Amino acid sequence: MQPGQSASRVGRNEIERCRRVQMKAHFSRLASLIPTKERLALPSLLDQSTSYIRQLKQRLEELRKRREKLQGDRAVIEEQRDSLMLPVLAIREVGSALEINLITGVNQNCLLYEIFSVLREEGAEVLTASCSTVGSRTFYSIYSQTIKGSCCTRLGQGRQLTGGN
């Protein structure tokens, strides 16, 4: 045997030894990740690892489907909640000036028309009106000037604003 060949053979042996140590460390790490009570042989460890990974994937898919369903249910509930939200009407009268604040759901615009109708019927002039939407609520602010008497009493009666008798 030549001196160069023995050196390469020693090098190959060292590489193989390092590879085996590395594989042993990988298998040890794999064994620590698998929920088992007894120590398993390598083939059993690999089989159990693959079945455990399949179970985890299946569980993950089930949880994703459940999350999507719950998010869909949540959207429906929020939509229903927004449609059932009762309007909030606040009226402040200072002399002949009238400030009306209305908070409604996004799809409840009919009240605004009714407020303008009552103001017009009672002889009030609308000076400014503003609107802003935040999330599922719409905020209206109406500033008006009363020309004759007070129109606050009719505006404060919810039956006339919501179409009830």
Short recap of the structure:
Helix content is 57%, strand content 22%. It has 5 helices and 4 strands, in the order ααββαββαα. It is found in: Nucleus.
SSE topology sketch:
Layout: H1 3-33, H2 42-84, E1 88-94, E2 97-105, H3 110-121, E3 124-134, E4 137-146, H4 152-155, H5 158-161
Antiparallel strand pairs: 1-2, 2-4, 3-4
CATH class (first level) name of the largest domain? Few Secondary Structures
The CATH architecture category of the largest domain equals Irregular
Number of helices: 5
Main sheet attributes: strand count, strand direction, barrel closure? 4 strands, antiparallel
Structure description:
By secondary structure, the chain is an alpha+beta fold. It folds into two domains: 3-80, MYOD Basic-Helix-Loop-Helix Domain, subunit B (Irregular), CATH 4.10.280; 85-161, ACT domain (Alpha-Beta Plaits, 2-Layer Sandwich). Helix content is 57%, strand content 22%. The chain has helices at 3-33, 42-84, 110-121, 152-155, 158-161; strands at residues 88-94, 97-105, 124-134, 137-146. The chain has a four-stranded antiparallel β-sheet. The chain is rod-shaped.
Short key terms for the protein model shown above:
2 domains; MYOD Basic-Helix-Loop-Helix Domain, subunit B; four-stranded antiparallel β-sheet; alpha+beta; 165 residues
